[in-house]
Automatic annotation (TrEMBL):
One annotated GO molecular function: enzyme inhibitor activity
Similarity annotation: Belongs to the PMEI family.
Record-given protein name: Pectinesterase inhibitor domain-containing protein
Organism: Manihot esculenta (Cassava)
InterPro entries from the UniProt entry: Invertase/methylesterase_inhib, PCW_Enzyme_Inhibitor, Pectinesterase_inhib_dom
Domain of life: Eukaryota
Listed GO biological process terms: plant-type cell wall modification
Pfam families: PMEI
Signal peptide: 1-22
């Protein structure tokens, strides 16, 4: 089961890179921020998530492609940090349920690692090391998959399934946008 999830994550990543890696953005002549966000997000697998999250940040209105990539990264990282806090809240409510508590501990570790990876992406972006960016973000996505698998392994319903999926979508969108920088 775990190898299937990892395989699927790699497959999604390769699909993103295949569709985005050889494509260049066509920038609108009037530099309309809504069009620029739409154009940038059209290269992602999760257009609605991309467009709504980027539009939620006022800096997106004046951002270039590098700026949109950084905003998408910050949104992913912030969501990871919020998920660590949410896991802490769930853990405090899980008294007496050792299985749930153990899975939540695993998820807190996985998300902490994911957030560290996303923090390292900033340096990789600054160095224009897009291969390192891809590796670090793909690993962060795998950490959220591993969190979900910890529940599946003991046949326990995950209270984090929606968060894990959304985190992966945010990371996927960032990867697609950052691949346009090459």
């Amino acid at each position: 089961m775990a190898s299937l999830k990892i395989f699927n994550s790699v497959l999604v990543f390769l699909a993103i890179m295949g569709t985005c890696g050889s494509t260049r953005l066509q920038f609108p002549g009037d530099n309309n921020s809504e069009d620029f966000i739409s154009t940038s997000c059209s290269h992602t697998l999760y257009y609605q998530v991309c467009a709504s999250t980027l539009r939620s940040d006022p800096r997106s209105k004046t951002a270039d492609l590098q700026g949109l990539a950084r905003i998408a990264l910050n949104i992913s990282k912030s969501y990871g940090v919020a998920t660590v806090a949410h896991i802490g809240d769930l853990k405090s409510e899980a008294t007496g349920n050792e299985s749930l508590s153990s899975c939540l501990d695993e998820c807190r570790e996985e998300y902490s690692e994911a957030v560290e990876n996303l923090e390292d992406v900033v340096e990789a972006l600054n160095a224009r090391s897009l291969e390192n960016v891809k590796t670090l973000v793909s690993s962060a996505m795998t950490y959220s998959d591993t969190c979900e698998e910890s529940f599946e392994e003991i046949q326990l319903a995950s209270p984090l399934v929606d968060r894990n999926l959304y985190f992966s979508k945010l990371c996927s969108n960032f990867l697609a946008i950052s691949s346009l920088l090459s």
